[in-house]
Design brief:
This protein is of the alpha+beta class. Helices cover about 20% and strands about 35% of the residues. It has 2 domains: about 150 residues, 3-Layer(aba) Sandwich (Rossmann fold), CATH 3.40.50; about 120 residues, RNA polymerase II/Efflux pump adaptor protein, barrel-sandwich hybrid domain (OB fold (Dihydrolipoamide Acetyltransferase, E2P), Beta Barrel).
Length: about 375
């Protein structure tokens, strides 16, 4: 049993790569890589199944792009192996790997038309003109640009140019498509549209996508699995729902989604109840936890897991509303409590009469949804 887990209700999250029962399409074994003596990736192992959409998620400098470039063959690891369908391709040249790659900076040729950009790799291989023409048109149809072949890429919008880059990578029929923050340069609305289109495209073509991003919302919207990275290592591996609901540590809780991250100290632990001193208040969590008195803890409470209440409860806190932000579909409140400031989100129609600035309200937490970690995990 992991420390801090309630044995009756919570399944511990995966803190590292999952061991897949079926053969993997791609496997990394003990990958290590450094830049000038500074480790960028440290002993990373992972497995990706055929047809999966996997996101490498993490802050800048965590090693996710380095890992992708090692898979592509653009970097060679100091230690470890890259396996494709069980075959060692660690030393195979990039152009000999059956992989496609899409970058944030699309590197389209501005002097060429859309169809010339998409068919460039086939022409380099001296494929017959009719073959090139047919493949280009079919691939443009796949990404919704069948009408745009004769256009200049400069005549297209940012989202359309992104689809051209996807078509250029897909035309060679790669076994895996590697995407390095390809939506980062798009504005918010186009980015959201492209998230949906990219996931739908992946389902249609049925190939493995490995997607690098620092945007947790993007990763959750598109991925079958998220590999959360920090300081060159994978700290959690799981489907988006699991990574969000059962973060492996305080870093995962704070990076994936919004949370109230509090610091506390164990006051009492016994008879099925953990009592934690937090600022000038306390949290009471039923269940069996393996924490010692006076041990320092990190506590995560999601804003949507706090509720406005008018009744009495062992888990209710009194607080003063310090800010209220109306977001159309929801209201964001910040409430000053004995535990410190807490952010709370509610659907706008659920909180029409609560939460004016300066008002004293009662906020309750659901102890089953509070996540607790040793403080050392967040360092």
């Amino acid at each position: 049993m992991e420390r801090g887990e309630v044995t009756a209700t919570v399944t511990p999250p995966a803190a590292g790569p999952r061991v897949e029962q079926q053969a993997s399409k791609l496997a990394l074994e003990g990958i290590t890589f450094s830049y000038g003596g500074a480790a960028a990736v440290e002993d990373v192992s992972l497995s990706v199944r055929s047809g999966e959409f996997v996101s490498l998620l993490g802050p800048s400098g965590c090693g996710k792009t380095t890992l992708l470039r090692i898979v592509a063959g653009l970097l060679r690891p100091e230690q470890g192996r890259v396996l494709l369908d069980g075959r060692d391709i660690t030393r195979l040249a990039p152009e000999k790997r059956p992989l496609g790659m899409v970058f944030q900076h699309l590197a389209l040729f501005p002097h060429l038309s859309v169809e010339e950009n998409v068919g460039f790799s086939l022409r380099l291989r001296r494929a017959p003109k009719e073959t090139v023409r047919g493949r280009v048109q079919a691939t443009l149809e796949l990404v919704g640009l069948g009408w745009a072949g004769s256009r200049s890429v400069s005549q297209l919008s940012g989202g359309q140019q992104q689809r051209v880059a996807l078509a250029r990578s897909l035309i060679s029929e790669p076994e895996i498509l590697l995407l390095d923050e390809p939506l980062g340069a798009l504005d918010l609305q186009i980015r959201k549209e492209m998230q949906v289109e990219l996931k739908n495209l992946q389902r249609r073509v049925g190939i493995t996508f490995i997607f690098v991003t620092h945007d947790q919302t993007e990763a959750m919207a598109m991925s079958d699995r998220i590999l959360l990275m920090r300081e060159g290592r994978i700290v959690q591996d799981g489907p988006p729902e699991e990574v969000y609901r059962l973060p492996a540590d305080a870093f995962a809780a704070g990076f994936v989604g919004e949370t109230n991250l509090l610091s506390g100290r164990v006051r009492e632990n016994g008879e099925g109840l953990l009592t934690i001193s937090v600022a000038d208040g306390e949290l009471r969590l039923p269940g069996r936890y393996d924490y010692a008195p006076n041990e320092e803890l990190a506590i995560s409470i999601r804003p949507e897991h706090l509720i406005l209440t008018q009744g009495e409860s062992d888990y209710a806190l009194s607080g003063r509303v310090s800010s209220r932000t109306f977001l159309g579909y929801e209201v964001l409140l910040e409430v000053e409590t004995a535990l410190g400031p807490l952010r709370l989100r509610r659907a706008a129609d659920e909180a029409p009469d609560f939460g004016d600035v300066g008002e004293t309200i009662s906020v309750a937490y659901d102890p089953a949804r509070v996540r607790v970690f040793p403080a050392t995990r967040s360092e």
